Amino acid sequence: MANEIFMPKLSSTMAEGTVIEWFKEEGDTVEVGEPILEIMTDKINIEVESYNDGILLKKYFETDDVVPVNHVIGFIGEAGESVPDEAPGESSGADSDNGPEEAPSQSEQPEGHAKDSESKSELSGKRESMIGKVRATPAARAHARTNDVDIKQITGSGRNGRIHKADVVNHLSAQSKTPAKQAESVDAPVTEVTASQAATVQTEKLRGSRKVTADRMADSSATIPHVTLNFEVEMEPLIELRKDLNEKYKDVKVSFNDLFILIASKALVLHPDVNITFKDNEISYHEERNISLAVAVEKELFVPVVKNTEKMGLFGISKESRRLIEDTRSRKLSQEDMTGGTFTISNLGMYSITSFTPIINKPQAAILGIGATTEQPTLRDGVLHNRKIATLSLSFDHRVINGAPAAAFCDTVKKLTENPIELIL
């Protein structure tokens, strides 16, 4: 009897997942523990591994298709076995009410999905036999074969070291720049390159977490009446505080992100009408101050959440935000790390961006953008001084937050930034 592959439920709140990439085609041989496809939900990419040996008989969904949890997405079995032509819907063996809180792979699904003739220990042994095999996408393997490259010599940039086609391309490019290759090119005949040959255009389909982010940005921009308030803050006091703390406490590295998370948290305590989410025509007022932090990783954008900041000191926030940023960059974020945010901070201060209009992270109702610090001349008591100024931008949902409370929140953020001693009182 053919065995179902179904969309795993990764958390109690997960309702659907997106197919990112199939690593196998119909008719391909599949081994226990071997990744067969990659799925994504809430910007978390998870490889689904096989719990069965056999042939991939059927796959019902393609890249970027959104599938409800516990619905059958394919079958594995023996060659010639009969399977439905159309997706049969919810799996007969999956428990939709009691899905696992964490389901990193299909191999961790209930035993009922294994062949009856195989014991748990046998399956475990087969999974262990997969360890050491090169993890690579079919496109990467094909490109490596075409260019006669040993794929074992390539370092993968994907999740758990998976090798993508781009890794193979980069490897080939690096090889072509070695002295040996350069020496060969000296003796090679010069070939005239036409304009049509030189003007190559690369195209890339928007997919995976980038597509989800794009869809959410478009939805937020189209459905939320954004209003953005820009205000200047004098940064010198905050710069000095950070410098003093990092000099005094060598084992702690406080960042400006950490300071602004604390500032936002303190301000949200004083302005609870900003610490809200809005969904299905209902406003939720949150006692917890869970600050989402926008983190860019190559072409992708992730928003991990520093939770319960109202209960943390600056050093606690620093430790947790550093963990989240490191896990984001190494693609180790958990589902829990990405959910529950009530307010977002987006910091472009490290670039030459003086101000910008941040897009609200639904279902939250507000987001604070931080621009670069610049020196600006100003008169004080008839004397010209240089001040270090940053422009902050608060975008808010005008359906549920009015201009006056939003402005009051901005005023509190300004006062805390310019008088940071209040942060530790």
Describe the protein's topology.
Elements: E1 3-6, E2 16-22, E3 29-30, E4 35-41, E5 44-49, E6 54-59, E7 66-68, E8 72-77, H1 120-130, H2 138-146, H3 165-176, H4 179-187, H5 195-198, H6 208-223, E9 226-234, H7 236-248, H8 256-270, E10 276-279, E11 282-285, E12 291-293, E13 295-297, E14 300-302, E15 305-306, H9 314-329, E16 343-347, E17 366-380, E18 383-397, H10 403-418
Parallel strand pairs: 12-16, 16-17
Antiparallel strand pairs: 1-8, 2-4, 2-7, 3-6, 4-5, 6-8, 9-18, 10-11, 12-15, 13-14, 17-18
Helix pairs in contact: 2-3, 8-9, 8-10
Structure write-up:
The protein has 425 residues and is α+β, with helices and mostly antiparallel strands. It has 3 domains: 3-133, OB fold (Dihydrolipoamide Acetyltransferase, E2P), CATH 2.40.50; 139-188, E3-binding domain (Dihydrolipoamide Transferase, Irregular); 208-424, Chloramphenicol acetyltransferase-like domain (Chloramphenicol Acetyltransferase, 2-Layer Sandwich), CATH 3.30.559.10. It is built from 10 helices and 18 strands. The protein has helices at 120-130, 138-146, 165-176, 179-187, 195-198, 208-223, 236-248, 256-270, 314-329, 403-418; strands spanning 3-6, 16-22, 29-30, 35-41, 44-49, 54-59, 66-68, 72-77, 226-234, 276-279, 282-285, 291-293, 295-297, 300-302, 305-306, 343-347, 366-380, 383-397. The strands form 5 sheets. It has a 6-stranded mixed sheet. Helix 2 packs parallel to helix 3 (165-176) and helix 8 packs across helix 10. The relative contact order is 0.11. It catalyses: N(6)-[(R)-dihydrolipoyl]-L-lysyl-[protein] + acetyl-CoA = N(6)-[(R)-S(8)-acetyldihydrolipoyl]-L-lysyl-[protein] + CoA.
